Amino acid sequence: MTSAQKTLAPKPLAQNSKTLLDDLAALVNAPLMDIAERLREAVLPYVGNSALIIFTEDCTGRPQKKAGAEEIISRVSVPELDQLRSQLPDREPWEGTATIAGAEHPVLALTSETKALVTLTAPQLPADPAERAESLRMLGYLWGLAARRIQEKVADAPPSYLLESRAASAERLRVTAELVDRHSTTLETLLAALRSNALDDATARRNVTDLAVKALVELRTVSDRTTDLVEEPVATAFERLREDLRPLMHFSGIDVQFIEPPVNGRALPGEVAHAARAIVRGLVLAIVEQPQVRRVRAQWDCDGENLLINVRDDGQGELSADSPNITRLASRVEALNGRMNLEVMAGWGADVQVALPLDPPPAPVGDAGGWGLAERELEVLQLLSAGQRNRAISAKLHISENTVKFHLRNIFRKLGVGSRTEAIALAHSHGMRAHV
Questions:
Q1: Does 332 lie in the same domain as 378?
Q2: Which residue has the higher pLDDT, 29 or 18?
Q3: Which of 130, 155, 180 is the last residue of a domain?
Q4: What are the CB-based long-range contacts (under 8 Å, 24+) for 124-130?
Q5: DSSP states along 92-132
Q6: Can you give the residue range of the structural domain that contains 238?
Q7: Exposed (0-12), middle (13-18) or buried (19+): which is 242, by Cβ within 10 Å?
Q8: What confidence score (pLDDT) does residue 5 get?
Q9: What is the rounded distance in angstroms from the CA atom of residue 297 to the CA atom of residue 306?
Q10: What mean pLDDT, rounded, does the chain reach?
């Protein structure tokens, strides 16, 4: 066994207690981008592994959080993790072989109550049955804690994280769409050729046609799955809210009534959907702390530009806009450029209205004046910040794709950024979005 391999093996359980509290503290206090590394450090004394991968739809911009072997964490994909998650028992450790990073690997995987997934590649567990059971129990405990902290951190994320998350979501969708366009054209051309009567080998043509059709379906599935992570149907988002509040309804004895949003309402950006559920959960928790509350009503609606949230209770009207819980929720709403209004009626309860914009707000051109962009460069940046691809920008501005690339290089240099994602995030931080 090499020295590198030795670091992956679990230590005897008797040696773990002296570091467990430190590992727990590091995990609880870790920023979102470091939480996979901290979780792996906490898990290693119990379950050795070559890599640890988290897949969570709470973070729409970066649904994967990874630590460990570079050859695995640099190549693992969302469809692979989504496929693995669909096969797992609910919140029970599963050991087997799965396709990770384009190859078959032995894995240990586990879901959480937040529907997130953790996957450990090349897992190593103690041989002794009792120690093995204890190691799996500790893995479940640590993973449950990490999954819940991810959900809480996303709910309390600062505006800068929300902007970066939305920019990353738009960029991932753009890249996937470009891949779908390119490969769909290739495969459709292949299908046309294979269906041609000029090919006389019917069996070969049929077999290859079936393969090409299957490849097209899989490619479209990847595109649809990526879109699902970026946007969420409003009805689906509301149903997840209902599931989130079900335990509270069961144990508190309070009747929570849900007024469904229109099923054909506009899909919600992932950040808005997660924030809306967190806001309603927070409001309901603040409301049930009041005495004599028996009924709460939660309603969502959509006017095409905003998600409209209304939460009201039948208490004595003791909810205060100055309370820490309400102040924290108001900051969350403000981070998404939303509005929150609390009306309290003594003896009749409280009524909270929230409006969350579905799009970043447009900003006047003058807001970007300090960047020194030429008029055409500014037009390209506005279209880029709206999620447009090079081909679409080229068509809209009646310039070639090479010219678009030339303008983008100049924009990156003037903005001091190194990628499309960084440029989009900076543009969104200034409220820039073209109307396309």
A1: no
A2: 29
A3: 155
A4: 124/8, 124/9, 124/10, 124/47, 124/48, 124/49, 125/10, 125/47, 125/48, 126/10, 126/13
A5: S-EEEEEEETTEEEEEEEEE-TTS-EEEEES-B--SSHHHH
A6: 234-357
A7: middle
A8: 38
A9: 20
A10: 79
Angstrom CA distances, 19 to 16, 230, 402, stand at 6, 38, 56
Whether residues 272 and 287 fall in one domain: yes
Under a CB-based contact definition with an 8 Å cutoff, are residues 106 and 97 in contact? yes
Q: Which pLDDT score is estimated for 125? A: 93
Q: Which residue has the tokens 């590992």?
A: 23
The number of distinct structural domains making up the chain is 4
Residues 290 and 396 in one domain: no
Least confident of 69-83, 126-140, 306-320, 420-434: 420-434
Q: Which two tokens stand for residue 77?
A: 């994909």
Residue 400 lies in a domain: yes
19 and 149 assigned to the same domain:
yes
Bridge partners (DSSP) of residue 121 are 51, 107
pTM value is: 0.50
Task: Quick: pLDDT tens for 132-176.
Answer: 999 999 999 999 999 988 888 877 666 556 655 666 666 566 556
Q: pLDDT tens for residues 223-238?
A: 555 555 567 788 888 9
* CATH number reported for the structural domain that contains residue 56 in this entry: 3.30.450
Supply the CATH number for residue 425's domain.
1.10.10.10
Is 65 part of a structural domain of the chain? yes
**DSSP assignment, residue 315?**
S
Q: Name residue 226's amino acid.
A: T
Q: Is residue 40 part of a domain?
A: yes
| pLDDT attached to residue 274 | 80
Going through 187-293 in order, the beta strands assigned E by DSSP cover: 231-232, 255-259, 268-269
Q: With H, G, I as helix, E, B as strand and everything else as coil, classify residue 339.
A: strand
Q: What is the pLDDT of residue 144?
A: 92
Identify the bridge partners of residue 64 per DSSP, sorted by sequence position: 55
Cα–chain center distance at 310: 25
Tell me, yes or no, whether 395 lies in a domain. yes
Asked whether the CA dihedral 16, 18, 20, 26 is positive or negative, the reply is negative
Which of 230, 253, 268 is the last residue in one of the domains? Answer: 230
Helix (H) or strand (E) holding 206: helix 202-230
Residues in the chain: 436
